[in-house]
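Tokens as discussed.
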């Protein structure tokens, strides 16, 4: 694995311990990797180890779909037509691989675009004389934290979802302490919104 993977200790521990027949579920392909080359390499490595990969937002690249593409080649006829059929089978396999690569490339592009927009936004704010950073005594909530709360609100059976606490923790790789802290804050926000007549929490 490359340097970007090396900084993710929990992920490296997971792929080291999984065994043939195990299943890893991701909310999206970006949860597995935001680097196209390393993501596809990891995908193929886990696939060949017999690990079932499931992507909730990109089900068309689940390893079960990839496996079906690998095994559903056109049967050979034993004639010279086989040269053509072999080419068709190789093309179908290459097409399946390309779909997977495109998903990882898109995830990488989204990260780069986000970084660029963040830098541009900070620079624009600075040029307009706005304060960069938080004022003393104020609480800041990062977008990553907001996203985790949205995911908990969407998937946890305590709110709008059907998953148990331990399943949500495992699915999104959230520490147990952080998970219950976020749940408490979500409940507090829901209670506050009801008191002041605000709209429900938005997930988009």
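Sequence:
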């Amino acid at each position: 694995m490359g340097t970007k993977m090396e900084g993710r200790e929990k992920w490296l521990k997971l792929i080291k311990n999984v065994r043939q027949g195990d299943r890893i579920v991701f909310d999206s392909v970006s949860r597995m990797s935001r680097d196209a080359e390393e993501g596809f390499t990891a995908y193929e490595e886990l696939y060949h180890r017999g690990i079932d990969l499931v992507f909730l937002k990109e089900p068309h690249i689940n390893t079960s779909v990839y496996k079906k593409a690998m095994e559903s080649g056109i049967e050979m006829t034993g004639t010279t037509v086989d040269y053509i059929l072999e080419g068709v089978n190789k093309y179908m396999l290459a097409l399946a691989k390309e779909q997977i690569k495109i998903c990882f490339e898109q995830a990488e592009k989204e990260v780069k675009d986000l970084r660029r927009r963040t830098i541009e936004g900070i620079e624009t704010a600075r040029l307009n004389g706005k304060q960069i950073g938080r004022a003393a005594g104020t609480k800041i909530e990062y977008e990553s934290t907001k996203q985790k709360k949205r995911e908990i609100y969407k998937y946890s059976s305590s709110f709008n979802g059907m998953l148990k606490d331990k399943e949500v923790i495992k699915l999104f790789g959230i520490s147990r302490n952080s998970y219950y802290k976020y749940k408490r804050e979500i409940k507090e926000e829901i209670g506050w919104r009801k008191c002041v007549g605000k709209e429900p929490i938005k997930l988009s």
